[in-house]
């Protein structure tokens, strides 16, 4: 049986997949959102134009450019 937090994560993963069309693959909830790309895609799906550019480079610096963009 799943704990309530695990059920929450599964429900939210399903919602993100429904909105963006992308899934977490073999990553857990935190791992799927860790680099910020899926989160930016979610925001763009909810409000187009909110995220100007999604940096898809697999580097820690790319994450900073996603988070700290003015």
Automatic annotation (TrEMBL):
<dbReference type="InterPro" id="IPR036872">
    <property type="entry name" value="CH_dom_sf"/>
</dbReference>
<dbReference type="GO" id="GO:0001725">
    <property type="term" value="C:stress fiber"/>
</dbReference>
<protein>
    <recommendedName>
        <fullName>Calponin-homology (CH) domain-containing protein</fullName>
    </recommendedName>
</protein>
<dbReference type="GO" id="GO:0051496">
    <property type="term" value="P:positive regulation of stress fiber assembly"/>
</dbReference>
<dbReference type="GO" id="GO:0032034">
    <property type="term" value="F:myosin II head/neck binding"/>
</dbReference>
<dbReference type="GO" id="GO:0051893">
    <property type="term" value="P:regulation of focal adhesion assembly"/>
</dbReference>
């Amino acid at each position: 049986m799943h704990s309530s937090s695990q059920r929450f994560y599964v429900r939210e993963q399903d919602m993100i997949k429904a909105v963006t069309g992308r899934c977490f693959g073999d990553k857990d909830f935190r791992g799927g959102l860790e680099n910020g790309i899926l989160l930016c895609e979610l925001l763009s799906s909810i409000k187009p134009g909110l995220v100007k550019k999604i940096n898809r480079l697999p580097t820690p610096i790319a994450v900073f450019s996603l988070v700290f963009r003015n």
